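Predict the structure of Unc-93 homolog A.
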Amino acid sequence: MDPASGADTARLLEEQDSESNAHLTSSDGVQSSRETNEGAPLRSPADKQWSPYKRDLHMLSFSFLLVFSAFGATQNLESSLNTDQGLGPISMGVLYCFLTVCSFLAPLFVHWLGAKNALLLGLTGYWAFVAANLVPTWFTLVPASAYLGFTASILWVAEGTYLTSAARAHSASCGSPEESTIGEFNGVFWAVFASNQVVGNLLALFLLRNGRSDPAHPGHVDKFATTLLFAVFLACMSVGTVAACFLRPEAKGARDLGADDPPVSIRSNLRSTMALLGDRRLLLLLALMVYSGLQQAFIWSDFTKDVVTPALGVSWVGGVMAVFGASDALASYFAGKLSSGMHSITFLVSGGAAAQLLVLIALLVKSSFGSSSTDYASLFTAAFLWGLGDAVFNTQISAILGICFPDDTASGFAQWKIWQSAATSAACFATPYLGIGTKLCILAGVLTVGMGGFLLVTLSTRRLAVPKER
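Done. Here is the predicted structure for Unc-93 homolog A.
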């Protein structure tokens, strides 16, 4: 045999052996893969959208719905029920003043306790505040407001941290885009949360409308009706607090806070919180954060006291605010669904700002011409439009903070609460000294400045995102 042909034959046999081995290896791999897949349960597309973190989302939303159904309705009635030397507005001012100051240290408590335990601590203040309204005096309501300011600062930083952590964990678990998942989680939470205005205010409307009129104060209801209302509210809040106990600890591996992180001192926490003020994006968002606090103070205090009560009576405050809550809830849900990035956030926030600006202009024209007649339709329409704007600001500011500050979300939410609550506190303290027309002009001016800064942030963020997409 020719040596060359013998070598060719040997080479041919080796190639056939290699192909055979490769085929066997491939077959084994396919078989192994099939065995692995057969061993794991098949997941439908619907299953891939579910994770334990959605259960946490729904439990958190349900807990807040029950607690804030009581607190929200109580807050709406403060300026109308507790009129003795401005006790109602001043107690709200104390609340938000303490919330402002304590928000600087709130991330530290969240770090020490963990998001879940911080949530439970935060809820205790709301229970104490509603209980103080059973005997509303300067010695009960003001201290309860101060304590609520302290616990509320912890609650809202913990809520933002917990919700963002759950959204990111759900995104990693299901393979969904992180930005859209954060928007979806915020939309669902704020939609359920905003429903508290419907539940609590309808309950207040029912109980107060059926209460006896107080002959000493026309248009007001007697003590028995308010006592019954706050007792029902306390029971509702107790159930909501128990529900929060069933939350799981925040997702492990979250980028914000973790159980394995090194101890954090008060100085380092303050440094971390204040460091964000050096970020140009946060500075541009400050005016919008301030406006979010001013517009909430207006709808809770000025709108109910100076617009609704003179026109329809205090018993109808709950009915009008229920419309506000229904609008807020529906808009929050759809805003979360539509929020998929900076482009959609820009569109939604612009629409919400336009809705509230329309209400401000209408009320300003009415107050300027001294019209005292206000019908049901105009009040309900104003409440509906204001709810649209409130929903957009709550959901989209939360989403944009999660997008812009992914590695320091707790400090970002703390900054939001600092500026929002400071604005709310200032508005409550200024209520006895400013006319409705002046307040409307201030709101319109701050909204205009805030939208200008917000648009600059969205433009700069989208420009930075273009190279990454390419």
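The longest helix spans residues 3-39.
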